[in-house]
Amino acid sequence: MAKPLVFIDGDQGTTGLLIHDRLRDRSDLQLATLPAAERKDARRRAEAINACDIAILCLPDAAARDAVAAIENPAVRVIDASSAHRTTAGWVYGFPEMDAGQAQRIATASRVTNPGCYPTGAISLLRPLIEAGLVPRDYPVSVHAVSGYSGGGRPSVEQYEGPQGAQAPAFQVYGTALAHKHPPEMQRYTGLDHRPIFVPAYGAFRQGIVLTIPLELRLLASGVDGKQLHAALARHYAGATHVRVIPLEETKTLTHLNPQALNGTNDMDLGVFINEEHGHVLLSAVFDNLGKGASGAAVQNLDLMLATAS
């Protein structure tokens, strides 16, 4: 039986390069990319995508839509790492741990949309709590996250690693118009009734994310406490290979969260920090924005899809 042919369209960007690195030594698949001279040739790109078994799109949104529109071969399956199709009907959301059936949906899908890096953290924390009835769907959610500068793509990498890198800010909050593209994705897949407030930032490190969501117990259902929130997350992710819920005994002594702690992996740590005196809870997610937040998630989804093709 021929090995499945995987075509990476856009392997020169940060996400595409890391996907290529993770796949290039695999013996269970054939890997295809386009040479530099052909990357902007619409005919060659269409030929390549229609000749593969699974295409991984690491492109700007408009180019990703064009690539999908060029598919004429009904057997071609797609993983889109852009944000072009994250809320599009007919596309399966590529977060395998989202619920009990999601990994199987991804495995059998023809169109998979990779989650955004920030939404991966927000959805992982909120969706199980909302589904368990512990956090109301109309809760006024605020999400704060700090990512490595690679989250801004090539322009941001050049800002920090180029000739003027010494002048780049150590920390910068952005998205102050509160119109970032990620809140609709967060709202849809968490199950919130209202758009969350999202405040993203970049730090002067290449990759990694710390994402936090504050909760006030007085705004939750009567009797809900931090231990119940932690227990619900622990139940949801019991047995998950790539998502760990930090034990409460560990969070009691954990005073800092390092955004780079899981760099180079496809893993994510979720925490529940409780201040009983003030009735405050802080939910946290730490992961690699280029791992579980991008290339690692794409390869995880690819492996699920390949398992059904073998």
From TrEMBL:
Keyword Repressor attributed: no
Catalytic activity: N-acetyl-L-glutamate 5-semialdehyde + phosphate + NADP(+) = N-acetyl-L-glutamyl 5-phosphate + NADPH + H(+)
Active site per database record: 117
Keyword DNA damage: no
Pathway assigned to this chain's UniProt record: Amino-acid biosynthesis; L-arginine biosynthesis; N(2)-acetyl-L-ornithine from L-glutamate: step 3/4
Gene3D superfamilies cross-referenced by the UniProt entry: Dihydrodipicolinate Reductase, domain 2, NAD(P)-binding Rossmann-like Domain
GO molecular-function terms, A-Z: N-acetyl-gamma-glutamyl-phosphate reductase activity
Main location: cytoplasm
Location of this chain's protein in the cell: Cytoplasm
E.C. designation(s): 1.2.1.38
SMART domains the UniProt entry points to: Semialdhyde_dh
InterPro entries attached to this UniProt entry: AGPR (IPR050085), AGPR_dimerisation_dom (IPR058924), AGPR_type-2 (IPR010136), NAD(P)-bd_dom_sf (IPR036291), Semialdehyde_DH_NAD-bd (IPR000534)
Ranges of residues in domain Semialdehyde dehydrogenase NAD-binding: 5-106
Keyword annotations: Amino-acid biosynthesis, Arginine biosynthesis, Cytoplasm, NADP, Oxidoreductase
One Pfam family of this chain: Semialdhyde_dhC_1
Family: Belongs to the NAGSA dehydrogenase family. Type 2 subfamily.
Protein role: Catalyzes the NADPH-dependent reduction of N-acetyl-5-glutamyl phosphate to yield N-acetyl-L-glutamate 5-semialdehyde.
HAMAP family for the chain: ArgC_type2
Protein's name according to its UniProt entry: N-acetyl-gamma-glutamyl-phosphate reductase
Source organism of this protein record: Herbaspirillum hiltneri N3
